Amino acid sequence: MNTLKVGDKAPQFSLKNEAGESVSLADYAGKKVLVYFYPKAMTPGCTIQAQGLRDIKDELDKHNVVVFGVSPDAVKRLPKFIEKESLNFSLLSDEDHAIADQFGVWGLKKFMGKEYDGIHRLSFLIDESGVITHVINKFKTKEHHQVILDLLA
Q1: How far apart (Å, rounded) are the C-alpha atoms in residues 46 and 26?
Q2: pLDDT tens by residue, 94-118
Q3: Is the pTM of this model over 0.85?
């Protein structure tokens, strides 16, 4: 894995959201964007992480931050996650993990003695001009939202 670093230009991407609409990073020039990569919708850790971001939306809005959750889930799975957890931000489908590869978050993982390729749980805060200002890679899912708020303070 060759993860992007602070100061790198964020890769331009277009992915389908929960409604099947194409969302491009370029559409959000002039705003800060939090792109957070998570392994799978409706799993315990991913749910806790998403709920935390949902609950701080007002504060993120004050800082001009748009949130996108990116996973290898199919588009059809995303609306269920949004509805079940009352999420107030878009989820993007990266089924072929092309964007995860570009950000350097797709790679070898180990779980219960098994090795497999998958998404590593990392987040990138991107400034108004498309430059990565923070790479968030060490956090507990239940504290992810607070780590983001602390960076914005």
Answers
A1: 26
A2: 999 999 999 999 999 887 888 989 9
A3: yes
